[in-house]
Design a protein that fits this description.
Blueprint lengths: L17 H29 L6 H6 L2 H19 L2 H4 L5 H13 L4 H6 L1 H25 L4 H14 L1 H11 L3 H29 L3 H11 L3 H11 L1 H16 L1 H16 L10 H7 L3 H18 L2 H29 L2 H6 L3 H24 L7
Helix pairs in contact: 1-3, 1-17, 3-17, 5-9, 5-16, 5-17, 7-8, 7-13, 7-19, 8-9, 8-10, 8-14, 8-19, 9-10, 9-14, 10-12, 10-19, 11-12, 11-13, 11-19, 12-13, 14-16, 16-17
Length: 374
């Protein structure tokens, strides 16, 4: 098996397991998922008030889910049950369902309330950082699908964007796990570095919030860093990050078109028509957009408490689906494939992170200079 070989978007050949293997796999998946959910909900409180409070709060469920999935993978292999239980590990279905539910939390009215600077920053930063990461990854010889995941994760919103890109380009499970790990690994130090730099540079609250929201790749880390700077900075950081999250669907569509027309097309094949584009188009994007529209309408049509409770329940469901998806990745992952990927993806991520940090500061300083937080 070559490095990062297992496709995310193609159903693998599965052995005939019978209902016993399917039920057994579901039980394993749910137990490990519940354990990951427990860790995600409690680790931060365990380390509250200690030197590890910041990192513990920033580590998100993909880390726990993949780690527990890998342990389950090892245990099932030792027991000779891994192949028998594989039919239950439906990574693609779980990921796409989770992303559709994510759309419900993207409130379009909040984005429009800060339409000017937030949208301008998001569009500019996503475009430039994506293209820079794509270019530097090409210089270092990474293949297109991994380049797409790295660029999307860095330019948009971390793990969620990498998941969306993986579905759009038919990426590989090992690639997604690799990129998810890099996103969180680089986000943790940002929680402390960026607030320290905000104080060192004497940045206004709005500029600081826009810099944090436009640069740090995970929502949890954005919240932690924004909180360290102050309430006003946290408000702007949240709006900028939500605006970037909303761009996932657009990027997924563009990636699908590019891969169909350029990357996956052979020199002697005919030009793809609309039918082929539709076949390759990640249909979950439509669900993501629909959920966002419906969620925005619902929150505006009901009492505030009712809307908050409903979106909270949907977010809880989304977290469960994505936890189970990452547990599935761990259960099917081949660690040797990650090792064979080498240092180059890490180098790409490090270089692009520094570029993103500097560019986001310049853009935030221009667009949010004199912006009033209300």
């Amino acid at each position: 098996m070559t490095a990062l070989e297992t496709p995310l978007s193609r159903s693998e050949e599965r052995v005939e397991t019978g209902y016993g293997g399917l039920i057994g796999g579901i039980v394993v998946l749910l137990i490990l998922g519940a354990a990951a959910r427990f860790l995600d909900a409690n680790v931060a409180s365990w380390f509250a008030g200690t030197a590890l409070a910041g990192p513990a709060k920033a580590i998100e469920f993909p880390v726990y889910a993949i780690a527990l999935g890998l342990l389950g993978n090892l245990a099932l292999a030792m027991l000779g049950l891994r192949e028998r239980f594989r039919a239950a590990f439906r990574t693609e279905f779980l990921i796409k369902t989770g992303l559709v539910l994510l759309g419900a939390s993207i409130n379009l009215s909040i984005i429009l309330s800060a339409a000017g600077p937030a949208i301008a920053q998001s569009v500019f930063m996503i475009t430039v950082v994506f293209l820079f990461t794509w270019w530097i990854a090409g210089v270092l010889g990474l293949e297109p699908k991994l380049r797409a995941l790295l660029a999307a994760g860095l330019a948009i919103c971390g793990v969620s964007a990498a998941i969306a890109a993986a579905g759009a380009v038919h990426a590989k499970k090992e690639q997604l796990a690799y990129v998810a790990g890099l996103v969180i690994l680089f986000a943790i130090p940002s929680i402390f570095i960026q607030p320290w730099l905000v104080g060192l540079l004497g940045l206004p609250s709005a500029v600081a919030g826009a810099w944090i929201g436009g640069n740090i790749d995970t929502t949890a880390a954005v919240t932690a860093a924004g909180t360290l700077v102050g309430e006003d900075a946290l408000k702007i950081a949240t709006i900028v990050k939500v605006t970037q999250n909303a761009m996932m669907g657009v990027v997924a569509v563009l990636l699908t078109i590019y891969f169909v027309m350029r990357v996956d097309r052979t020199p002697d094949s005919p030009r793809p028509g609309l039918g082929e584009l539709w076949v390759r188009f990640p249909k979950f994007v439509l669900g993501f957009i629909a959920a966002s529209i419906i969620g925005t309408w619902f929150v505006g049509a009901v009492a505030a408490d009712t809307g908050t409770a409903a979106i909270g329940a949907i977010n809880g469901m989304r977290t469960w689906f994505l936890i189970l998806a990452f547990v599935s990745i761990g259960l099917e992952l081949r660690v040797t494939s990650l090792r064979e990927a080498g240092w180059r993806p890490i180098g790409v991520f490090a270089i692009a992170t520094v570029f993103n940090l500097a560019l986001a500061l310049v853009v935030a300083s221009i667009l949010f200079a004199g912006f009033s937080v209300s």
